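#onboarding

Welcome to the new folks! Below is a worked example of what a typical request in this channel looks like: someone posts a single protein sequence, and someone else replies with the predicted structure as tokens. Don't worry about understanding the tokens yet, we'll cover that in week two.

Example request:
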Amino acid sequence: MKFLLLLFGVCWLHTTGAFLAEMFPRDGRKWPYGQPKKLEYRNLVPVSLSDDCLKAINESAFLPGLKHLNHSKLDVMLDSVGKPGAGLLSRNFLWYGSYQQCTELTGTKYCLNTMIVNGDNLGIKPTKAEIGVCIPDICNDDDAINFLWSLEAVVPTRWKKAYAALEVYILAFVEKNATNTVCETEQPLEKHSIAGLVVCSCIIVLLLTGSIVDWYMSQPLPIPSSAGWMKGGRNMFTSQRTATQARNINDGDETDPLIRASPAMGLLSSQVLSYPDRHRDTWYSRALRCFSLQRNVLFVLDPKHNTGTVPCLHGIRVFSMAWIILGHTYLWPQFVGCSNLREMSIMTSQISFQLVLNSTFAVDSFFVLSGMLVMFWTLRRVGNDGGTFSVVKFYAHRFLRLTPAYMFVLMAWTTLAQYWGEVPSWKSNMEDHRMCEQYWWTNLLYINNFYPPHLKGSCLGWTWYLALDMQFYIISPLVIMAAYRFGTVGLSVTVAILMSGSLIATGLIVRIYNFRIDGSQLLINDIFTDEFTNGAMVSTARDSYPSKVFDKPYCRIAPYLVGLCIGFLVRRLPSVSTTTFSKAPARWFALLGWAVALVLLLAPVYGLYGTYRREDQLSSLATIFYYTFSRLSWALGVGWLVLACFAGYGGYINSFFSHGIWLPLSRLTFAAYLTHPIMLYLLFLGLEVPVYYTNVSMVAYYLAALVGSYTAAFVLSVCVEIPFVELEKLLVSR
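Example response:
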């Protein structure tokens, strides 16, 4: 017993002495927030760090950290370093650390290293890791990488256990080379960024000037009632047309389902306004009034349908755009960073997730609507002009309609996007921004679906749709003129030739490259396919399904051809305001049509559910059949929906899609398509932590993306899209 008491006393004295030595060192150093603990290092000479960086790290051990944390600067720096968490088997190698805590320190900077993970030890495929470090600002990019392999030297003894896991995981899994290192630094404005700000400033000046001119021109003049040209207190020289009525003058001028909800906005220039000398409405004043904010806002918010249009298209546009945003919101974390990627892939077995996986069919809906509108309004215009058709005006009109808003978004993304996000994860994922500096001209020429050769390396990758739609528009006169001159026979022959060529080409390409649908993987994985070879990421997307089939016009034209046929039929059929559904033949024909259309719509969306649920691989023949006919099936279903609603067989479905509530949102479709991926980047890359994938969190992200996208679309449409559309019409009418 005495021996045990003696042993206990010796241990207590030893522990107390060590504690006092730690708290009161003999060198007499003073600590501004109380006496610090003495820091003991295993090795203060890391071989791989530069001398200046090493010196700054060693000095930080004796400098105060944050006021609310009674620790040294080095403690806070180490605490800000990214550390491994649970879910490594789910590829959770996004160890961001604390960006905010690091940047609160003085003389430090946060760096994010994108590195390669060797998955052999975990039994997973090679993947990337993003590890954040906090280092003195005198350190260079190489120090940011080497810091992770110098933890043995810089971590104090009392932090040893806390950082043991990080050291083990780095040595065991991470290759000692980084594909990209981004450090948080203050970036001066570059020349092209200044140019982008100048363009934005010029547009703001035009908006203010146009609004003032429009307000001035709308003010009544104080003219005596005895004047001969006044009758009944009304100025006979002032047009009584409203903005909406004026825009209805040139109905039938629009051919793109994304640009306008009505077939045309109409010309401001078509308002024959006659004012006294003080309010003379010249061509230049009308040009400035195109930028009038009050006019453009009222037009966007106007819920009235124009005459001679197909009202159900408005609702189809809105829901198709919402579906695209839904799919992108759920799949975007796979591209920008997700801490539970495996759980995300497991969700493909849920039947509700088939809507997410197959949201690309919404784009085919736009192809159907685009082809229909091109055929419908061009036939009407050619008929009104006595059969004359100007190819130059046809193409110039389309280019001038799409390009201004498109190029403005591209300009803002290329010159200003690098300043929108603060965290380094924003800058490290700005590959698309860097591609725009090199390949912006391919977007201007609408060939970005061909060059660069794969979707991942393109500028504004989501704008492949605009390139396809422009290319379809270029060849559409062949079908339109055949239909105009030879009627049903001409249309049938040209569509049959193009359709059969497209289907055969799609089937052959799928067979030659042996594309397969694997139920154990996300369907969208084919779009961004990376393999890690010899410590480097090698893109194999050039031979993937998207680069060969997904964004190629000869494989995607089938829905557009269906739209051309629907437009021809709608042009031939009179608009039916009251349904003849009560007649027995018509009733049974409509019921059969709706039943077939329902099967055609549901089959491509839910047809692969069994494959995903069983995690099987679809056979080669079944894959060829699905890739070849799935989009045609969807297009035929949408075509029946439009045709039935126009012919009076839509019932409540037509009433729902034709409701005036969809019209303002429908007018913003084109702008929403351009801006919604940028909103997703801001949502997901503006976070300090990786996205954790759950249904609840993704619904919240989706609602935020939906509201944010349409808010940005409203601003873009009012300030850029509508003014330049009006200017184009004003120039044509001059």
